Amino acid sequence: MRAILDEQLSPQIAVLLRKAGYDVDAVADRDDLAGRSDRIVFEVASREGRAVVTNNIKDFRPLAAEFLAQGRAHAGLILLPSARTRSRATIAVIASAIENVLRDNPAGISASERWIGPLKDR
Does the residue 22 lie in any domain? Predict the structure, then answer.
């Protein structure tokens, strides 16, 4: 399963996931996507077969629904809680939670979503 982290998520999360053997990009690290609209990010992710990892639920869920209503495929959404703290410890916690989804869904989550519950610093 391939994924891409939305721009508000630390690229360090992608680094940790790549070290664990997963194909994960970060929007913030990609010149073709950094600063682009959510629609562009979602379209590129869909073309690349990458699930979008985001806490921007209010924007990405409607995009996913629109794709499905148009009969277009997308690689899925991994949805994080919108309220969370931003710290170095949280980066590892978020990476671990995303890794669980990637590990549990090796064939991907096409046209669906997975929710990650509340995160607690270790």
Answer: yes
Residue 39 in domain? yes
Q: Would you give per-residue pLDDT tens digits along the chain (122 residues)?
A: 999 999 999 999 999 999 999 999 999 999 999 999 999 999 999 999 999 999 999 999 999 999 999 999 999 999 998 765 567 778 999 999 999 999 999 999 999 999 998 887 54
Q: Which residues contact 93 (CB under 8 A, 6 or more apart)?
A: 119, 120, 121, 122
Q: Which pTM was predicted?
A: 0.94
Give the residue from 88, 116, 43, 64 showing the smallest Cα distance to 27.
Answer: 43
